[in-house]
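At this stage, I needed to go through a protein sequence along with its fold in token form, as given directly below:
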Amino acid sequence: MNFTLKFNLQSDIPLYIQLYNYIISEIKNGKIIENEKLPSKKALAAHLNISKTTIENAYEVLLSEGYIKSIPRSGYYVLKYDPPIVFNNEINSSTITENKKQLPNYKYRFLTNSVDTKNFPFSTWAKISKNVMYNNPDLLYIGENCGDELLRKELIKYLHEYRGVISSPNNIIIGAGTEYLLDILCQLLGKKSIFALENPCYINNYKILRDNDKKIIPISVDNNGIILSELENTNANIAYVTPSHQFPTGSSMPIGRRTALLNWAATSDKYIIEDDYDSEFRYTGRPIPALQGLDQNNKVIYIGTLSRSIAPSIRIAYLILPDKLMQKYKNNFNYRSSTVSRFEQHTLYNFMANGHFARHLNKIRNIYKQKKEFLVKLFKEHFPKNMITITGENAGLHFLISIKNSMTEKELIKSAETIGIEIRGLSEYYITNHKKHKIPTLVMGYSGLTETELEEAILLLKKVWLVTK
């Protein structure tokens, strides 16, 4: 017996509660019957790819509520469940209207995870995909669990040439999204790992670590990235950073702080997770090499994704592990199969190997640069100089704008919502201890909008933000 369920990693409901709810549902529906033995905690943790602690917590709640019993040295067994008797069922299920939350009807969305779909190379991708599909029947078989070698080699080549990454194809794992790879890391780094996380940060990463029962210590950031003095005063042994383009503030970590961070990790059994999520998009100066390429002690774990450079739906991300962790992965996770279709892996390989990826990047980088410059120009033309401050605009697909008028951050967002515009506030990206900014600050993701849409949106915002003090 085993369970197959899909956890909702975006939900605020802890994983153990999701598992608990699933088992109760199976018991009430009669799919798990009286005296049936539940899977062992170890076996279920391996099957669902979650921590054993999560299983223990779910089983403990079921035990306390009388759904199951524990027999020493044997396991957990389901107790008899008698559904409540309904004497007067006046309400028929067909008469119940679904209570859906009414979502705002947004016309313009300034989001950080959008891409320019109009400039996606559809015909090239489709042609390669079709060729791969029809000429490689062997791809129907399961491939290597870390990802097919030819794609791993191509990714390492690309990352070395463009990001200064120094590694081997034997140290890379290809997975369906950074969420999946972070789950792997949580298990590899062990139960006692304590994560130092930039504050503010990409909040979904925080939720994944939290749902894996990890202890998390928020560390403030400044104009040079994570603040080392705060980090050094904690007992954290894992530092999760975005040094090339801190999310969401947009700051870049200078060489002095990079060296100090590497020295912090070199002193004992510590690691740095370098999230290089949008390194392809830098608009001024030379690209900043990856922190991983500076590492002399095998202490940097490098993680990246193609979600922004190609498309979010192409769920291909990569994880480069130091030798010690890679050996641990091969020893303990060799039963895993790759979570990325081999057809998609080979399509991406051909897309990269034949120069299409480099050409697409050059094209889309220029398009995003033009959009960014156009949006900055719009703000400067339509809003008083002393009212706005723009920062973090030299890289990535978003920037911050601080707005000094009579509104709070919440009021700015709400007023934009009333005219069909979605914008996120900087406060949403803080884990804890959010120090309120003197000036409300918004995160402006512009990549998914056309120049026409950008101009229309700014003219609308002008009407609701230019208020009399």
User: Anything to note?
Assistant: The domain at 108-116+363-465 is CATH 3.90.1150.10 (Aspartate Aminotransferase, domain 1). The first strand starts at residue 68 and ends at 71. The chain has three domains: 15-78, 108-116+363-465, 122-358.
